[in-house]
Amino acid sequence: ESTEEIKPLTEEEKQEQARKLEEKIRQRRLEREEKEKKEAIEREKERRKFGQEVATTRQKIEEQEMLKLAEEKRKEKMEAMLAKKKVLEDIERDKLERREKFNMGGGAPPAAVAKPPAPVAPVEPKKEYDQCRLQIRLTNGQTLTQTFGAHEELAAVRLYVEMNRTDGDLPFTLMTNFPRKVFSDEDYGKPLNALGLVPSAVIILTKAK
């Protein structure tokens, strides 16, 4: 066994080791920074390359679109020219046919005399009434006068008579003389304008049979 005693480092040796360690750390940092710098340069190259490829592709697409648009315009122009040519040919053919008919007929056909249109009598618009004025003759000879809405049902007139009559309370029916019509139970559900009572009419009470 070695009995040699390990001597502690002197202050100078400690400083030397610390300097060497710091130098290694600095060297590794420089190497890492250099590596990162190279990687950044490569990434920038790749980015620029990709950007150039995208720009080239976009330019090609735009050129293709421009060529396509130019071709479409050329086709449209050609179609317009052909359509115009066809119209002119149709006009010339029509002129030729007219000339041939004229030569075969020995003269121009007599022009038809247009008859003036017959005068049209103005049609007066049908007036719409929204009210109905009724004279109601009771069985005792007295008369009730009341204005109803044109769209009210005949049942409203019957109710008015029942509430305001002065000839008793015997059952009654309603009728008109001109034209003569005795209103049925179904008529009481119809509006006054549908029964021909608008704008005014005379209704007569008769005793119910």
What topology does this entry show?
Elements: H1 11-105, E1 131-137, E2 143-149, H2 154-164, E3 172-177, E4 180-182, E5 200-207
Parallel strand pairs: 1-5
Antiparallel strand pairs: 1-2, 3-4, 3-5
Task: Please give a structural write-up.
This protein has 209 residues and is of the alpha+beta class. It folds into 2 domains: 12-103; 131-207, Roll (Ubiquitin-like (UB roll)), CATH 3.10.20. Helix content is 51%, strand content 15%. It has 2 helices and 5 strands. The protein has helices at 11-105, 154-164, and strands at residues 131-137, 143-149, 172-177, 180-182, 200-207. The chain has a 5-stranded mixed sheet with strand order 2-1-5-3-4, with helices on one face. A hairpin with a 5-residue loop joins strand 1 and strand 2. The chain is elongated. The N and C termini lie far apart (154 Å). The mean pLDDT is 87.
Short description:
The protein is of the alpha+beta class. It is built from two helices and five strands; from the N terminus they run H-E-E-H-E-E-E.
